[in-house]
Amino acid sequence: MNAALSPLQLAQTLAAQFAERAALHDERASFPHDNFSELAAAGLLSLAASPHLLQHPDRSAGLSIALPTQGASLATLSQVIGTLGEACPATALVLAMQYIQHRSLSRASSRWPVQLARRVVQTANPQVALINSLRVEPELGTPARGGLPATTARRSGEGWVLSGRKIYSTGAPGLRWLAVWARTDETPPRVGTFLVDAQRPGVRIEHSWNHLGLRASGSHDIVFEGVHLPADHAVDIRPPQAWQGGNADLQAEMAVFLGQIYSGVARAAHRWTLGFLRERTPASLGAPLATLPRVQEAVGRIERLLTVNALLIAQLAQRVDAGDVPSATESGLVKVQVTEAAVQAVHEALALTSNHGLSRRNPLERHLRDVLCGPVHTPQVDSVHVAAGREALAL
User: Fold this and answer.
1) Is the sign of the CA dihedral 42, 46, 52, 54 positive or negative?
2) What pTM did the predictor assign?
C-alpha cells in the first residue's frame, strides 16, 4: 500500500475491494478477516491512537511500529468510516469500535495503565489486534439503561478471575482485546472495565449471531469461564455511582461514526437506485423511469436526506476537533436524526424500485436490511427523547 496516500485515499482504495466481497460475506454471515488484514497492511487500524501510545515499542515482542499516520482527527476518522460504510458496513462498524477504544485510551483522562494501553495500540497493525468494549448481557441488556452487570470478577491471589457472558459482541471473531464491563465480588461492589486477552484460557465464542442485517459483523456471544487476569488488568473500576452521567466524548464519537456508517449504507442504496432509474425503461412509458417528474421529486427527497446527514455529521466532528464537545443528549439527538434519515432514504429508494429492490439478485435488499440496524444502536430513540425532554423541562 502506498504510504504517500492520505488515510481517506487508502480507505477509498480498499473500499472498492471490500464492496466486491460484501454480498458474499453477508450471504455466508462470515467475518471479513481479509478486510482487516488489508486495513492493517495500510496502517489504518491504529489511525485513531495518539502518537504517544505508539512510541517506545515493545522490542521483546517483535513489534515494529512505523505508521504513516496516527492520532487522526475525528473528521478524518469520520471520512474513513463513511467510505468503508458505503462498501461494507460490517467492516466499518468493527473499525469504528476500534477507533472509539483507541481514542479513549489516548485521552489524558484515561485511567488505563500506560503499558497496557500501549500494548493494545502497538499490536493493532502488525497482528490485526482489534479491541471492542463488551457491555451487553442477556439479563441486563444495555448498561446505558442502568443496572449492574452479572459478569463478575473475584479476587484470586494477586489477580482476578472473571466469569460471565456478553452478547452482541461486535467483531468477536477478530478481537484480540476485550474491554469487559463487569462487577467485583466485593461488598459493596465496584463496576468497570477489565482487559482480557481473547487468547486466554476460559474465553469462548458462541456463534450466535444470525441477524437480518450486518450479518458479517460477527456480533456473537463471548463467554468467560474462570478467566484469570493479572491485577493491573482491572483497568478502570469504580463505585457504581461514579459512572452516572453520560460520557460526552464517547457519545459524540458514536454519533459521528454510526451516522457515517448508516449514511454510507443509504448512499450505496441511492447509487444503485440512480442506475436502475436511468436504465429501467418500461414498454408502457417508452423512456427511462428517470424522466418522470414524480421520480425526480422522490430522488430529490433522498438527496435532501443524505445532504443534511452529511452536514450534521461534518459539523459534529468539527466541533469535537475544535474542543467544543456537545452534551451527550445533543449528540444523541444527532445520532437519532441521522440514522432515521438513512432508513427513510432507503425506504424511498425501495418505493421507487418496487419488486426489483427486494430481489436478492440486487443489492438494495441488503442495504435495506443493514440500514435497519442503525436506530437499534445505543443510544436508542426513546432514551434520547426522554433525556432531551427532561432537559427541556428542567426536570
Assistant:
1) negative
2) 0.94
